[in-house]
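User: My advisor, Dr. K., asked me to get a structural model of this assembly before our group meeting. I'm new to this, so sorry if the format is off. These are the inputs:
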Amino acid sequence: DGGITQSPKYLFRKEGQNVTLSCEQNLNHDAMYWYRQDPGQGLRLIYYSQIVNDFQKGDIAEGYSVSREKKESFPLTVTSAQKNPTAFYLCASKAGKVTEAFFGQGTRLTVV
Amino acid sequence: AQKVTQAQTEISVVEKEDVTLDCVYETRDTTYYLFWYKQPPSGELVFLIRRNSFDEQNEISGRYSWNFQKSTSSFNFTITASQVVDSAVYFCALSDGNSGNTPLVFGKGTRLSVIA
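Assistant: The format is fine. Below is the predicted structure of the whole assembly, which you can bring to the meeting.
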């Protein structure tokens, strides 16, 4: 089945550690996005990529990094510089500018 | 800059009542797209509808209907005869229609609780 797969579903991180969230899509979409969701804050854009080997910062990119080496993959690294990383992270992809975005099931990251 | 405002943070209704979720947007673009998504407790966002800025026709899909009014920059969502399964967080979103795969800008969401 076509879709977006995020893993893991739950992730626990110790303070000071970097962690990488996986996002894979088999929809052949050019664009991919990472959003962060906090209670009452809606979805805020972290990074996005419109094409392989290119990506742009979103509204809250500080403390995060991404790569886009393959069309189907857009991993997000939460670095130790991110001061408050506990949140729900959603990955999305989009086929073109007139289409809707498709979302993965999300990764819930908790700092312990 | 683009902005989406969902003024209703939480709404509770009794089953079978009708409920309207409000969405007001801001954009300088002449071509843009509006969306509604549903987020059930599982967390995944489920696409409900897309509307482009040139199509102001209202749309009905079963118990769902959408009212798009450019004059008031609003794209409201009505659920008729609500059911417990409608309980979720609903997001309104906006994207630029002029330049590539620009990201969707989301409102903060409205949490709908339908009580049996």
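One thing worth pointing out at the meeting: Chain B has no helices and twelve strands.

User: Perfect, thanks a lot.
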